[in-house]
Design a protein that fits this description.
The chain is of the alpha/beta class. The chain contains 14 helices and 13 strands. β4, α6 and β5 form a beta-alpha-beta unit. Bound molecules: pyridoxal-5'-phosphate.
């Protein structure tokens, strides 16, 4: 389907002083939450018992998540960041951890907090998740783990990474922050690697307010993470490992528990929106979309396009500025990449050697609004605004 023309009623684009396409800004993200009364009635019962943190509701949420995800152990924690920190600690990871540079910085924070050295690998030019061959090329004697990311909910190259990790005796952890509701060959994300860690913060699909969920089939690891979220204490007042207070409160667990029922619907709606964006923008020159493998379902936590200036007519930042003039807020998930950020620049492998796809992709990535309550009409208008930028450029040329 070709892009509908909006140019006729728009002699001057908003950035050139014309009328903006939207008369006012609308939110870039707005989570759909479960019914307030449902959450409160769950909470009220347990509140009366005086146990307001890490008690019954947390256990109920863990059991429900474990059943839904088909994984033996789920441990609710205070955030995905604390979950990742605890998993790396509990696995006894030492030395170097290979991870993508094209991710949110919290992936890297978990590595640094454990005193480990991040070694950044490049991403695949089509799926934008970490490139397995590039990971392999960076394995040395010092490597002890791979930390991969299901970027925007797009499952990473799970089997290849599992094979690579087992061949080299490495731990494999997935930062599944974006991926609650994603599936890989019909199996829920959450079952793979040594552990997967979800985020339950409000920009993700399953919302606890703040929270994370560690999933694993390894009973030993599960017991250590369970202790780890409670200062490392297993009940002997003599911590088994260096832990944190990373517990989840009952209210947050109630919110997440009530939210579980909404996840499938959210994933469907995100996929509808992604499909509509893709259809409207398919023929616009200079735009590239993320590839999701045939057997996989992505949550499309985010919908991002790559803007290639030579064909599109302007670069990503110019496009973002023009869209903002139309009252359309966008984001650059994730730019700059980690190896260009101050915290990581100093400690990573020499200036992040050969991360060419990462550089190109993070320089051109533009994330468009995507959430359940966004109307079809708004989605179309946003897509048309993006398409119009390329057309306006064509008209000028
Ligand atoms: C949001 C996010 C995190 C951090 O999650 P918190 O629950 O906020 O700690 C980690 N990794 C990625 C890729 C994220 O997007």
């Amino acid at each position: 389907m070709s892009a509908p023309k909006i140019a006729p009623n728009r002699p001057v684009p908003a950035i050139g002083g014309g009328e903006p396409l939207f008369t006012r800004r609308f939110p870039f993200i707005c989570p759909t939450l479960p019914e307030y009364d449902k959450v409160l009635s769950l909470y009220k019962k347990h509140y009366a018992s005086g146990m307001i943190t890490n008690a019954n509701l947390v256990a109920r949420f863990e059991a429900a998540a474990s059943e839904r995800l088909g994984v033996r152990h789920c441990i609710a924690v205070s955030s995905c960041t604390s979950g990742l920190m605890l998993v790396l600690k509990a696995l006894g990871v030492r030395g170097d951890v290979i991870l993508p540079s094209f991710t949110f910085f919290a992936t890297g924070h978990a590595v640094l907090w454990n005193g480990l050295r991040p070694v950044f690998a490049d991403c695949d030019p089509y799926t934008w998740t970490v490139d397995t061959e590039d990971v392999e090329s960076r394995i040395t004697e010092a490597t002890s783990a791979i930390l991969a990311v299901h970027l925007y909910g797009n499952p990473a190259a799970i089997e290849q990474l599992e094979r690579l990790a087992s061949k080299n005796g490495l731990k494999l952890v997935f930062d599944a922050a974006h991926a609650f509701g994603s599936t890989h060959n019909g199996r829920p994300v959450g079952q793979f690697g040594d552990a997967e860690v979800f985020s339950l913060s409000p920009t993700k699909l399953l919302v606890a307010g703040e929270g994370g969920l560690v999933c694993t089939n390894d009973a030993t690891l599960a017991a250590l993470v369970r202790a780890g979220r409670n200062y490392g204490d297993t009940g002997q007042y003599d911590p088994a490992l260096l832990g944190l207070n990373a517990r989840m409160t009952e209210f947050n667990a109630g919110l997440a528990l009530a939210g579980l029922d909404l996840v499938d619907q959210k994933v469907r709606r995100h996929n509808q929106i992604a499909q509509r964006y893709t259809e409207v923008l398919a023929d616009v020159p200079g735009l590239q979309f993320q590839e999701v493998h045939g057997g996989d379902v992505s949550t499309y936590k985010d919908f991002s396009v790559l803007v290639w200036p030579a064909q599109f007519g302007m670069d990503r930042d110019e496009a973002a500025a023009a869209l903002l003039a139309d009252n359309i807020e966008t984001k650059k998930y994730f730019s700059p990449p980690l190896h260009r950020q101050r915290l990581f620049r100093e400690v990573c492998e020499p200036a992040g050697r050969d991360l060419n796809n990462t550089e190109r992709i993070s320089n051109s990535v533009l994330s468009l609004p995507i959430y359940e309550s966004l109307s079809d009409e708004t989605v179309e208008k946003v897509a048309m605004a993006v398409a119009a930028l390329a057309q306006e450029e064509e008209a000028v040329r």
